[in-house]
Each structure stands twice: as C-alpha cells, then as structure tokens.
Amino acid sequence: MGGGSPLARARARESGAGPRGGLPGARGNDLPGSGRGPATVTLVRAADRTLTVRLDPDAGTVVLDRSGWPRAGAAGSAPVTVRVPPAPRLSVRLLADGSLLELFVADRATVTERVYARPDDVPELTVEGDAEVSGWEQVPPRRG
C-alpha cells in the first residue's frame, strides 16, 4: 500500500510554498481542499503569469486559469470553468503528477490538463480567501 507524507497545508489568508521542480507534485501530489466562500489557489507562479484555481461555492463555479500557458486547439489557453450546483461548501481535489494536472470538482466533474513548467516557473501552493487545502506527496510503497 502506498503512503504519503505531509507536503503543505495552507488556510485562508495564509500562504505556504510547495515543492520545487514542476507543478506542485512533479513526483505526484494529492491536493484536496474545500471552500466556504470565494477563494483562489495558486499552483505555479512566474514573473508574468500564474496557474490558479478559483472557487465560488455560492455561484457553483470552479475556474482553472491556465491563460499564462499557451495552448493549441479550439479552446486555446482560455480558462476552464466547471459548473456545479451552488452549495455552502465546495470541495475540490487536485492531482498533480509531472506535467499532468487533474481537477475534480464536488465529486461531479473532472478537468485534465497538461501544464509544462518553464525554467522560471516557481511551484507554490498559496490559498487566498475562505478555503483550506491540504497536500500530500505520493510516494512509492516501501517494503519491510
């Protein structure tokens, strides 16, 4: 059975840095969280861009803003908005593994994205607003 080690814990109006070298979780991280009010979770920051997830439980929306990372295709780099029924509390779960980012919203919707880090990107986990996020680094099982 695989284990985990605490990676980061950030509460509203506090911030904490995540691991270096790719998205938070270049080796694999599980970032479950929930919001009771509007909140923004920053995953990667660079001089000219951020990769964020914005939660609004009252509106029933979660927005993955990847506009700083150019993408081909019809949607391009436009933010991805996930709509769920409004609720007093909105749960999300982010799984990051290398360049792969999966966002699960309220056990109802999923967004899967590739986000390739550049040399000047700084992985971080910062939470602003009325939300809480926990982080666990996924580690391979140990024998013995």
Briefly, what is this?
By secondary structure, the chain is mainly beta. The chain is built from no helices and 10 strands. It has a single domain, classed as Sandwich (Jelly Rolls), CATH 2.60.120.
Which structural traits does this protein have?
144 residues, mainly beta, Jelly Rolls, disordered N terminus
Protein described:
The structure is a single chain. The protein is built from no helices and ten strands. Strands 1, 2, 3, 4, 5, 6, 7, 8, 9 and 10 form a ten-stranded antiparallel β-sheet that branches. The protein has a single domain, classed as Exo-inulinase, domain 1 (Jelly Rolls, Sandwich), CATH 2.60.120. With 144 residues, it is an all-beta fold. Strand 4 and strand 5 form a beta hairpin.
CATH homologous superfamily placement: Exo-inulinase, domain 1
What is the CA-atom radius of gyration, in angstroms?
15 Å
Q: What is the percentage of strand-forming residues?
A: over 45%
Cα shape: globular
Which residues sit in consecutive blocks of at least 5 with pLDDT less than 50?
1-22
Q: Please count the helical segments.
A: 0
Number of domains: 1
Q: Estimate percent helicity.
A: under 10%
Count of beta strands: 10
Q: Provide the succession of SSEs.
A: EEEEEEEEEE
Measured between the Cα atoms of the first and last residue, the distance is 12 Å
At the third CATH level, what is the topology name?
Jelly Rolls
**What's the CATH first level?**
Mainly Beta
